[in-house]
Structure formats: structure tokens, C-alpha cells
Specification:
heterotrimer, A mainly alpha (367), B mainly alpha (129), C mainly alpha (65), A: mainly alpha, B: 129 residues, mainly alpha, 2 domains, elongated
Chain lengths: 367, 129, 65
């Protein structure tokens, strides 16, 4: 009697003492501590209906929304390149008119010095803007890589929890090392190399005696070739690992289900079905996280990419104008700067595509 | 308003008169040449000023620093004067004086461009850091 | 355009050349040299004016000094 009374009292105590539900608080605290609420990419995503707390909202993304987002970024970045183009156009017109006025039948020595002065003016105008654009590109590369260092463990963890352990491990190792390499390379290799190329371009244009065209073109080809090689190896390795790993993981999960349904006495079938449901929901979660991650990375990188492309367009247009007006020295300067910008664009696009393709591949193969 | 026809006619006539007077007094021929070229250049240069103003306006509207446009125009003026002087010296068969005038002109141009060299050196130093 | 100046200079040049020829034929070398010199000085004074004008207008238009 006493035992029953004491046990009833204990049960009543448990029932009436409120326990705080801690999972949601922990999630909120983590969200604030990570600073995810302050990301500008987050704002852009929220505007378009994708939120960090609801991974399924990626399904609502449509091509027209994507196009609107890109178009907004482009129109925001339009003023800088346009101003540069108009300024350089004015200088080229000035130089062309002056050269045609000052140079009559025979080419005198003063013409050469005059051409050099016009080239110097163009260099002074263009250098500041372009070096800013290049450092923005390097920063965006480093930022994207840092985002991946945070994103990859989470994604791999969810994939591993969903049963795709082998593929998740391979993805984790490869992409994390690639992200680390990208961060280091952006600061130590990328920026110095680009600055050096800019200086070579300037020297080549200003000094007629030295012709460094070939050197610049060689560097650009080397960069393109090297990037192609790295991207092929990385993607190939990851796809092989994912495909092989996913077969191994499927085999493991089927074995587990069979064992559960046949060895657990009463509720075997139900537990095996519950396992399938949990696996399916974790897979949905993983795909949603992957989708949001890809979207966030793309948005982080989009502004500097767009600005690089716009400046490249502007410099190409100016070089065409310079060629039309016959000022070949100035035209050479702009062609060289175009090469440098292409190299920068290639590196940034390559690394970001590597990350996006690897995440998409894990999402596709492991489901 | 300079009529291109009158300019050409005057040039041809002056050239013929020079040919005639050369045999008897070369100095008169040279002086005639100097006078004709100076007068033609004066009338033409006053026509250039609307062009230069238009280019200045274009440069200002596009945000080009006016110092650069000024530098280019000054360089153009130096080129003009140097060419004029050295060609007249060539006409007088004084090649050394012509070369001296050209060298002086080139030096003056380089002096004009010196501040820009300094700016570019600064920018390159910043880029290479 | 000051075409009159050009005609004056051309005229003086032709006159000086003719006088030179005539005086040389008449074997008055010194007078020939004197006419040449005077003609030179007169034309030079006319030309220097226009050269000064030229340099002034170049300075103004191109903004030198």
C-alpha cells in the first residue's frame, strides 16, 4: 500500500514539474551565435522566399526569380564600368585627334613621346579601378571558401546521419581540403600573381622597346590549363567516390533493414519501416540543406563575378574603340588588361563551380 | 573663316615665288616660307579652339580629371612648335639646329609627363604590396 | 587671313632679287649686298610680327605657360 502510494506520488511529481523544451532554444542560440542572421546573402535569400530555417523553401525557386536577382545585381553594378568606359573613350578621342593633328608627313620623334604620354594618362585612370576589382574578386573567393569550410561538415554530417557514410566522408575530406587550398591560394598566390600581371601589362604598354605580350598570354594560358586540370581531377575523383560509396551505403542500409525486420521479435516490420521513413526524411533534409547552401554560395559570389564581367566588357569595348581610332599603343594596353581580368574571372568561376558541382553531385548520387 | 582653297592657292603661289627668288637671294625665299607658314598656322589654330573646347567638355562630362586633358593639350602644343621650328631649320639646310630643336621638344615633353610617372610608380608600389 | 602681308613680302622679295641681278650686272657688288641686307631686314621685321602672333595663339589655345 505504502509502496503504491509512494510510486503514485513520484509519478505525480514528475507530471507536474515542468521541463523546459530545450531543443528549440538551443537552435535559436546557435543561430544567433553563428551570426547567420546578419548575412547579406541571407537577406537576399529571404527576399526571394528561401529561408535558412525551412530548407524545403528551395523548391519555390523559379528561373524568373533567378533572372530577376541576377538582373538586379547587374543594374546595381552598372555605374562603375560605364563611367570607366566613357572616361577612357574621351581620352582615346583626345589622343587620336591630337595624334592626327600633330603627325603630318613623316613620323617625327615627338610623336613617339606624345603617344607615350597618352598611354600614361590611360594607365593612371584605369589602374586604381582595376586593382580594386581584382582585390574584390580575391576576397570573394576567400569568403566563398570560408563559407564552404563551415557548410561542408554540416552537410556531410547530415548525409552521414542519413546512412551515406562513405560518400559523406569522401565529400568532407575532398571539399574541405579544396576550400582550405582556395583560402590560402587566394591570399598568397592569386592576388600577387594578378598584381604582377597588371604591372607587366602596364610596362608593356608604356615602354615600346620591350614587348611582353607573349609573356602575359603565356601566363593566361598556363592559368587556364592548370585550372582545367585541377577541376577535372577533383570532379572525377569526387564522382567516383560518391558513386562507389553510395552503392556500398545502399547495401549497408538494405542489410540493416533486413536484419531489423527479421531479427527484432514483434515489432520488426514496423521498426524497419520507421527506419526507412527516418532515412527518407533525413535525405530530404540533406537535399534541402544542399540546395540552400548552393544558393547562398552563388549569391555570395554573384556581386564580384558580375562586377568582373562588367569591367571586362567595358575594357573590351574600349580596346575596340582604341583600335578603330588607330591608337595601337593604347589598344595593346587594354588587350593586356583584358587578359588579366579573364584570368581572374577564370579562377573565381572555377573554384565556385567546383564547390557547387561537388555538393550537387553528393545530393544527386546519395538519394 | 579659313577657306581651304585660298590656303592651297597661297601655298602653291608662294612655293613658285620661292623657286624664282631662290636663285638670286636665298634669304628672301626662306623668309617668305616662314611668313607663309606662320600666317597659315595662325589662321588654322584659331579654328582648332572650338574642337579643343568640345573635347574638354566631353572629358569633363565623363569624369576625366581636367589635369590629364590639359597635359595632353600642352604636349600637343609643344609638338606643334617643335615641328615648326625644326622644319624651318631643315629648309635652311641646318640639320644640327633642327635636331637640337627636336631634342629640346622631347625633353620638354618628358618633363611634362614626370608627375604622371610618379603617380604610376606609387600605384605600382601599392599593387605589388 | 592677311594675304596682303604675303603679297607684300613676295613683292619685296621679287624686287630685291631683280635689283640684286641688275646691280650685279652693273658691277656694283657692294650696293647689291646693301639692297639684299635692307630687303632682309624689312621682311624680317614684318615676319617677326606674325611669328610672335603664331606663338602667342599656340600658347593661348593649348594652355602652355
Amino acid at each position: 500500500m505504502k509502496k503504491i502510494f509512494v510510486s503514485l506520488l513520484c509519478i505525480l511529481c514528475f507530471l507536474f514539474t515542468p521541463f523546459s523544451v530545450s531543443a528549440e532554444e538551443t537552435a535559436d542560440r546557435l543561430y544567433e551565435a553563428s551570426g547567420a542572421g546578419n548575412l547579406s546573402a541571407g537577406e537576399i535569400l529571404e527576399e526571394n522566399g528561401i529561408s535558412f530555417s525551412d530548407p524545403e523553401s528551395v523548391l519555390s525557386l523559379s528561373p524568373s526569380m533567378l533572372w530577376d536577382m541576377i538582373w538586379d545585381t547587374i543594374s546595381g553594378k552598372l555605374t562603375g564600368p560605364l563611367t570607366l568606359f566613357v572616361t577612357l573613350f574621351a581620352v582615346i578621342v583626345l589622343a587620336a585627334v591630337s595624334l592626327s593633328l600633330g603627325d603630318t608627313i613623316k613620323k617625327s620623334g615627338t610623336t613617339a613621346v606624345f603617344t607615350m604620354i597618352c598611354t600614361l594618362v590611360c594607365v593612371t585612370i584605369i589602374s586604381g579601378t582595376i586593382s580594386e576589382v581584382l582585390s574584390n574578386a580575391a576576397n570573394s573567393l576567400a569568403d566563398g571558401a570560408r563559407f564552404m569550410t563551415g557548410f561542408v561538415p554540416v552537410f556531410a554530417g547530415v548525409a552521414a546521419a542519413g546512412g551515406y557514410i562513405t560518400s559523406a566522408t569522401g565529400y568532407n575530406v575532398l571539399v574541405l581540403s579544396a576550400a582550405d587550398t582556395a583560402i590560402q591560394a587566394a591570399d598568397r598566390i592569386f592576388m600577387p600573381m594578378l598584381s604582377m600581371c597588371m604591372c607587366i601589362a602596364i610596362v608593356d604598354a608604356v615602354c615600346n622597346a620591350v614587348s611582353l605580350d607573349g609573356l602575359l598570354n603565356g601566363i593566361k594560358k598556363l592559368v587556364t590549363w592548370g585550372l582545367g586540370l585541377i577541376m577535372t581531377i577533383f570532379t572525377g575523383l569526387l564522382s567516383i567516390q560518391s558513386v562507389v560509396g553510395s552503392s556500398a551505403d545502399t547495401l549497408t542500409s538494405k542489410t540493416a533493414k533486413y536484419v531489423i525486420s527479421n531479427c527484432v521479435p514483434v515489432v520488426g516490420g514496423a521498426v524497419s519501416d520507421a527506419y526507412s521513413t527516418v532515412k527518407g526524411s533525413l535525405s530530404l533534409l540533406k537535399n534541402g540543406i544542399g540546395g540552400v547552401g548552393i544558393a547562398a554560395l552563388a549569391i555570395m559570389v554573384l556581386p564580384s563575378l558580375v562586377s568582373l564581367i562588367m569591367y571586362k566588357l567595358s575594357v573590351s569595348a574600349v580596346s575596340i574603340v582604341a583600335e578603330i581610332f588607330g591608337t595601337s599603343g593604347i589598344c595593346k594596353l587594354f588587350k593586356n588588361i583584358n587578359s588579366v581580368l579573364s584570368a581572374a574571372l577564370g579562377v573565381v568561376v572555377c573554384f565556385d563551380l567546383m564547390f557547387i558541382i561537388s555538393t550537387a553531385m553528393v545530393m544527386a548520387v546519395c538519394s | 573663316m579659313v577657306n581651304i582653297v585660298s590656303v592651297c592657292v597661297i601655298c602653291i603661289c608662294a612655293a613658285l615665288i620661292c623657286k624664282i627668288t631662290e636663285k638670286h637671294s636665298k634669304e628672301q625665299a626662306v623668309l617668305l616660307v616662314i611668313a607663309v607658314s606662320a600666317l597659315i598656322l595662325i589662321s588654322v589654330i584659331s579654328e582648332i579652339s572650338p574642337v579643343i573646347e568640345k573635347i574638354n567638355y566631353l572629358a569633363g562630362a565623363s569624369g576625366l580629371d581636367s589635369a590629364y586633358a590639359e597635359t595632353i593639350f600642352k604636349a600637343l602644343g609643344i609638338c606643334f612648335l617643335t615641328r615648326f621650328a625644326s622644319d624651318i631649320c631643315h629648309d635652311c639646310n641646318e640639320n644640327s639646329m633642327a635636331t637640337a630643336a627636336e631634342i629640346a621638344g622631347k625633353l620638354q615633353l618628358v618633363l611634362l609627363a614626370l608627375p604622371m610617372f610618379g603617380e604610376i610608380a606609387d600605384m605600382t608600389a601599392v599593387m605589388l604590396e | 587671313m592677311e594675304v596682303d602681308l604675303i603679297f607684300k613680302i613676295a613683292g619685296i622679295g621679287i624686287i630685291v632679287a631683280v635689283l640684286n641681278l641688275v646691280l650685279k650686272r652693273a658691277e656694283r657688288e657692294e650696293q647689291a649686298m646693301m639692297t639684299t641686307l635692307i630687303g632682309l631686314v624689312v621682311v624680317l621685321m614684318m615676319v617677326i610680327d606674325s611669328i610672335g602672333n603664331l606663338f602667342d595663339s599656340v600658347k593661348t589655345v593649348f594652355g602652355l605657360w
